[in-house]
Amino acid sequence: MKNLWVVPILLAASHATAGGWEASTLDTSFMYQNGNYGEVGNASITYNVRANIQGVDTPKVKMAKNQNRTALAFKSEFGDLAIGLASYMSGAIQLSGGDATAAGCIPDPTNAAIGLCSVVPSADVTTNSLVLLGRYKMNDNLSFLAGANRYEIASGATVTALSGLYEVSGDALVPTFGAAYELSDIALRADLVIQSKTKISNFKAQSSFAAGGVATTLQDVSGESMTIPQTMKLNFQSGIAENTLMFGSIHQANWKDAQIVIPERDNGSALGGVDAVGSSFANRTTYSIGLGRKFTEQFSGLISYTTEAGGGKTTSDPFTLRNGYQSLSFGGRYTVGNVTVSAGYNYTLPGDVDLAHASGGVPSGLTASYKNNNVSALGLKVGFSF
Fold this sequence. Notes:
- By secondary structure, the protein is mainly β.
- The protein is 0% helix and 55% strand.
- It is globular, with a radius of gyration of 22 Å.
């Protein structure tokens, strides 16, 4: 079983409904490929996530925007030392709350462009990660990883809340470290990766509406903050029979200590000063288990199940669109010479949740109810050794 390494296909869909604003986690599997190695992957994610805006007579409105996520990774070996570089979309808040308009709602009377009828904000915010990693092999079994993950909010990021439109920006360098234990004879590997809690010290929010609701140039908002949570991820795999591999992971993120805050800014509307953005993320732990099977020297397949426990059927966090989730992934990998092509599909069922919002200025009853939603994704990855 020494040569059995069925690497799980990277599907961004497995994190399509992750906690907080997390879109994808750091996948370190490329660091364990033999020799020099590179890969590129893409996932297309379709969010069938809709909500009823209670208190008004409106049909279900699609609240989450579809996404395309691309990931790149490269690793080069220098004896017992390997240096790797990875790039991927690490976070996303892409909501369409502003589309939830209906008769009976109360838009901002001073500016029709605001006109939100939903306590769910509209948002187009993504964070991209560029990771530099080093892996040093102490011996054939034990190795250590260390590096840094540079998070950056993509340019043009905006959040539109009841009090107006806000542009946000910032970046941070997150320490990353870990360790791995391997037994190649049975294809066993267990690796733990930890990323430290880091505040985005230069996080900046600017409002395009001045007091009185008059459109103006961007003005700074005081007291805003955004924090990247501490995360720990344990990956494991082991051969359990000839040409058969079991794999899984446990991912824990301390979102409770990592919130997004943009203080209220009174734009002079009838709604008064309302909270622009105030998340209330909860800690999340995600479990995954799967089986891989090598059918021929060229082709292998896998199936996996992922679950995350919910935090309750009611939330006050406008960014939380589900109460935990369950997902199923399956795919295959084909090898030709030094090139591997992997493809897979993921289907996710988010748990039902109601958004109860009691922030000042929000009309009574304007809450969102998410029920019977689903997320699907197709992923493709090409890897090459040289």
